Amino acid sequence: MTSRLFGSGWTFRAALLLPLLAAGPALADFGSCVSGLADSAVKAGVDRDVATRAFAGLTQPDDKVLRFSQAQPEFVTPIWDYLAFLVDDQRIADGRAMMSKYGRVLQQAEQRYGVDRSVIAAVWGVESDYGKEAGGYFLPHALATLVCAGERRTDFWRGELMAALKLVSAGDLRLDELNGSWAGAFGQTQFIPSTYQRLAVDFDGDGRRDLVNSVADALGSTANYLKRSGWQEGQPWMIEVRVPAGYSGPTGRKDKDPLSAWAQRGVVRADGAPLSGSGQAGLILPAGPQGPGFLVFRNFDAIYSYNAAESYAIAISYLAQRLSGGPALRTPWPTDDPGLSRAQRLRLQQLLLAQGYDIGGQADGKIGPATRAAISAAEQRLGMPQTGRAGQKIFRALGGQ
After folding, report:
1. CB contact at 8 A, 382 and 395
2. 339-361: b (≥16 Cβ within 10 Å) or e
3. CA 268 – CA 262 distance, rounded (Å)
4. How far apart are CA 50 and CA 224, in angstroms?
5. Predicted confidence (pLDDT) at residue 27 exceeds the cutoff of 60
6. DSSP 8-state symbol, 280
7. Does the N-terminal or the C-terminal CB of the chain have fewer CB atoms within 10 Å?
8. How far, in Å, CA of 80 to CA of 286, rounded?
9. Are 59 and 72 contacting, i.e. CB atoms less than 8 angstroms apart?
10. What is the Cα–Cα distance from 150 to 343, expressed in whole angstroms?
11. How far from 215 is each of 106, 195, 212, 218, 222, CA to CA, in Å?
12. 287 contacts: CB under 8 Å, gap ≥ 6
């Protein structure tokens, strides 16, 4: 079971609203379903007061939760947009600062579990922007919506809901601390409740497993998760490579061969140096042979297990390399309209507002439906193809630098 099934950073998901699909037949009987969940929680050992307070005020499903459940950015967003947002200069600088501030904790986690400290920090950075963006959904209400009005995986959501309430009953957390993503992931490194139950550790020694308020518990628990997922101490996780022109050989994370075999196929490091060393790796070409290529190792698979999307694992792996002093990608993405960093997204919204476009509120850097509509209107006025996408072309056309 993955620690998180959907998304990599709730704030990015919030920028990708899709039209709400029809809810399931349980919608008409939503109130009765919620009451049944409260009774089930008590039967499962949850304190009745906790169960009662958990569902207080929940009279109708959360439409946003249902919208988000229909799409995941890891699978629908161009890889260059995804990485531009998740691995920008600010996240790298902030991550290095946090690695310095919490250097002792990261060193202890690395020593105990064998997981590279930069990878632990990268998960923290992508999942919650180092604790700043942990999510704004009250988990009992979000998960109850998915159980009682959703269309898929209702047994899974029910199990996560019960696990979350049991964490409160066990004393690990207060009920008002169950705030996270629409899909139930919460805490500084966004564990889903069942994974929290299984793999969270009390790394600061205070007697509680608190991944919401304790950075030490969150980082130690993340290292424990990756170790349990097969992390191999001292081994690489990903290296950027180039493939020869016309490459048509094997690709895929699971299709692993020795580095020597990849060298025989003409694969070289991104800087042109020949491959060397041992280990089994698979080749990923997320934008085809013209874009950056990556040889990924067993440790990449451990990262992948945290959230089963290759773009997510690439983002974590790349951010970890940057945090440890590695270079930016050497091969450009095969697009003439690269993605925007968070700072550029914010500036784009400011430019739209300054030129009279309605983005649905104040500029916050989050590209939602209103901002996309404003971009489309600006593109139309400028004689550009209407995409509604926040890319470099419209950014520069509106005066961005």
Report:
1. no
2. bbbbebbbbbbbbbbeeebebee
3. 8
4. 29
5. no
6. E
7. C
8. 10
9. no
10. 35
11. 10, 17, 8, 5, 11
12. 79, 80, 333, 334, 335
Q: How many CA atoms lie within 13 A of 385 on its CB side?
A: 6
Q: What is the pTM of this model?
A: 0.90
- What pLDDT sits at residue 12? 36
Are the CB atoms for 267 and 242 separated by under 8 Å? yes
Residue 81 has pLDDT above 70, yes or no: yes
Rounded Cα distance between 347 and 353, Å, is 10
Among 60-74, 176-190, 213-227, 331-345, the least confident range:
60-74
pLDDT tops 80 at residue 20: no
Q: How far is CA 307 from the centre of its chain?
A: 7
3-state percent breakdown (helix, strand, coil) of the chain, nearest 5: 50, 10, 45
Point out which residues pair with 191 in neighbouring strands.
186
Q: What is the pLDDT of residue 303?
A: 98
The alpha carbon of residue 270 and the mean position of all alpha carbons in its chain are separated, in whole angstroms, by 26
C-alpha 278/C-alpha 85 separation (Å) is: 33
More confident residue, 26 or 252: 252
How do beta strands 238-242 and 293-296 pair? antiparallel
Stated length of the chain: 401
Q: State how far the Cα of 56 lies from the Cα of 359, in Å rounded to an integer.
A: 33
Identity of the amino acid at 222: T
- Read off the tokens for 98: 């946090």
Q: Looking at the predicted structure, is the pLDDT value of residue 114 above 60?
A: yes
